[in-house]
Amino acid sequence: MGAWGHGFRQPDQDAAATARGEAFVATADNPSAIYYNPAGITQLEGLQTRVGLYNVSFESEFNDTFKTDGDMNVAPQIFAVYSPDESPLSYGLGVYVPYGLSLEWPETTGFRSAGLAADLAYTTVNPVIGWQICDTVSIGAGPTFNFGDLELKQGLSPFPGNDYFRFQGDGFAAGFNAGLMWQITEQFVFGAAYRSKTELDYEGSSRLFANIPPTDITVTSAAELPTPQNIAAGLSWRPTPKWNIEFNVDWTDWNQLNTVPIRQGIPVPPLTLNWESSIYYELGGTYKFDNGWHVSAGYIYNENSMPDATYTPLVADLDRQFLSVGAGSTIGNFSFDVAYQFGFADSRNVTGSPVTLAGQTADGQYDFTSHAVALSVGWKF
């Protein structure tokens, strides 16, 4: 999973939406609506499926010298929707990755005791029901069953390769999501979606290792890392049947992440986050050709969530921007979309970050670039 600038949230769940800069909450016209806006599944007929992959390679850089690994990370999605004939109800099931984090710094950055690596694998199973209340209004909602695996690693001293502390654990939590779609006029559609906060209590073990003095201790431990609630709202403008232009505001309540204590027999300092809520601003458009093809483009501005006073290089958050393009087609019962996304950020100069017990800080200049390709294919039975 890729580490986005917006904390560790992963909003790319369909290639058609990624091509539009994720401005999809008021469109939501394929089975990935289960994630973007579950009310949208009422637009679909019969049984439809959609599977996809989001493939991202990102690179965080520190002081123009040290870089994260830049490996390709892959997030899959599977969606299915069934709308019975002559029924106002639609049913859906999605399996996807709404959060993810995979990042590793070299040992020689100068902040190894503030953070070396983080890896979060987070999968959601999400059944939903949509109800078309009338010709112009639909709602949808469903529970989310969330499974996570977490690993955090940091040095104990300033000396590369000499020691480390590593926590590993897994956990489960339930939540829910809900959505609304309102066809205001023939040209304007309003959409809104909500995803609840979850509290995953990761249970596993911690290892403290050192060469000097020789130490190798593994103890049972646990850590509670919440995923925050978020609300997205958007307006889709369809000036002609060929055009769909949408603007979304997507807010995530990251200030629900405060102090993360690691509970174990050997006390260790908690992870202090104290993040701030932040917003995605998303703009995208799609043009449909008469031959079944369509093309899309989009833009995202993504506020950072971490203040300098609690900055952690394990996420390396910045104000980021994303540009995307894509194309797709429907051929009989088969459909597909492909998208390319480029991410970049202005340099962030961090000052006043926490001082570790080893006397190091994460102060310095951070930069970011990313390249991603998304592919989704669908079938209507």
The largest β sheet comes out as: 14 strands, antiparallel, barrel
Helix content percent band:
under 10%
Radius of gyration: 22 Å
Cα-to-Cα separation, first versus last residue = 31 Å
Instruction: Kindly name the structural category.
Output: mainly beta
Low-confidence parts: 1-5
Describe the strand arrangement of the main beta sheet, using strand numbers: 1-3-4-5-6-7-8-11-12-16-17-18-19-21
How many domains? The number is 1
CATH topology: the name is Porin
Question: What is the correct CATH architecture?
Answer: Beta Barrel
CATH superfamily: Outer membrane protein transport protein (OMPP1/FadL/TodX)
Give the integer mean of the pLDDT values.
Answer: 93
Q: What is the count of helical runs?
A: 2
| Broad CATH class | Mainly Beta
What percent strand?
over 45%
- Give helix and strand order, one letter per element, not per position: HHEEEEEEEEEEEEEEEEEEEEE
Broad shape: elongated
Provide structural commentary:
- By secondary structure, the chain is mostly beta strands.
- It has a single domain (15-380), classed as Porin (Beta Barrel).
- Helix content is 2%, strand content 59%.
- The chain has helices at residues 15-19, 33-36; strands at residues 46-62, 66-67, 72-83, 89-104, 117-132, 137-154, 163-183, 188-195, 198-210, 215-227, 230-237, 243-252, 259-260, 262-264, 271-272, 278-288, 293-302, 320-331, 334-345, 348-350, 364-380.
- The strands form 2 sheets. A 14-stranded antiparallel barrel has the order 1-3-4-5-6-7-8-11-12-16-17-18-19-21. Strands 13-15 form a two-stranded antiparallel sheet.
- The protein is elongated and about 70 Å long.
- The model is unreliable at 1-5 (pLDDT under 50).
